[in-house]
Automatic annotation (TrEMBL):
It comes from Methanolobus zinderi. Keywords: Amino-acid biosynthesis, Aromatic amino acid biosynthesis, NADP, Oxidoreductase. It catalyses: shikimate + NADP(+) = 3-dehydroshikimate + NADPH + H(+). Involved in the biosynthesis of the chorismate, which leads to the biosynthesis of aromatic amino acids. Catalyzes the reversible NADPH linked reduction of 3-dehydroshikimate (DHSA) to yield shikimate (SA). This is Shikimate dehydrogenase (NADP(+)). Its EC number is 1.1.1.25. NADP(+) binds at G124, A125, G126, G127, A128, N147, R148, T149, E150, Q151, K152, I215, G238. Residues 241-268 form the SDH C-terminal domain. One of its GO terms (biological process) is amino acid biosynthetic process.
Amino acid sequence: MRTVFGVFGDPVAHSKSPDMHNAAFRELDMDCIYHAFRVSPENLKDALLGARAMGFGGVNLTVPLKQEALKIVEADSLAAGIGAINTVDFKDGMKGYNTDGLGAKRTLEEKDVTIKGSNVLIVGAGGASRAIAFQFAKDGADIIIANRTEQKAINLASEVAAVGSARGCGLESIKELIAESDILINCTTLGMHPNTEGTIATAEDMHPDLTVFDIVYNPLETRLLKEAKKAGAKAVTGEMMLIYQGAEAFKIWTGVEPPINVMKKAVLEGL
Ligand code: ATR
């Protein structure tokens, strides 16, 4: 019988996950289907129990359910640290994972960027920043989190410091911090459609040994990445993080490494 997978969230209609996973299932000739379901936080528990009872293969969670899920699902240590679950597996009860940081890690590794031992400057202190900061600190990077609201960066860094090296600060000395960094990651919404002129830094702030990774993928080439190219820095686009977090979820559910290029094509066609 066909196995059902899904993403729960609200809003969820524009999620790229169904296209991405269904393309992978088709390519691998697996009898599976992935669908988006609109679920509110109040209904998350019922929805998860229902999905498990109906034999779902697994689900992803998106806004506004990732934190709420911690009350319901047994989280692994990384997801518990991040404080958010984006992947639920039903094989053995209800296990929760967070593959967002792994998605960022694989995106950089694919571009031959080393994380261990590197100085990583993460700008922003929201959900994406949390996932990346925990993962990269665990992987041995030295993390600085810089945020417009300084206290949020300081609070997040003090949590991340439990698994590795991290400190938090405001945006005042961002130029000096970039000069000392190997990797700069934008986890703010600056540069996102429709305000595409926004950027956390310009070419003068950057150096040619820097890798600049923007998690914004609408547009794919953000102002920040244009500035990075101008400075001769390595520019890494954000859609790969979405694809790799999906690929990691796919592996948790099925034990199979999905075809990345097929998933990428499906995501790019939908952008
Ligand atoms: P996500 O969950 O996707 O990471 P979020 O939680 O909405 O997104 O976080 C957005 C981040 O972008 C925050 O760090 C926010 O800074 P504040 O904590 O000070 O609000 C940052 N951000 C949004 N607009 C910004 C701007 N114009 N300049 C600098 N940072 C900005």
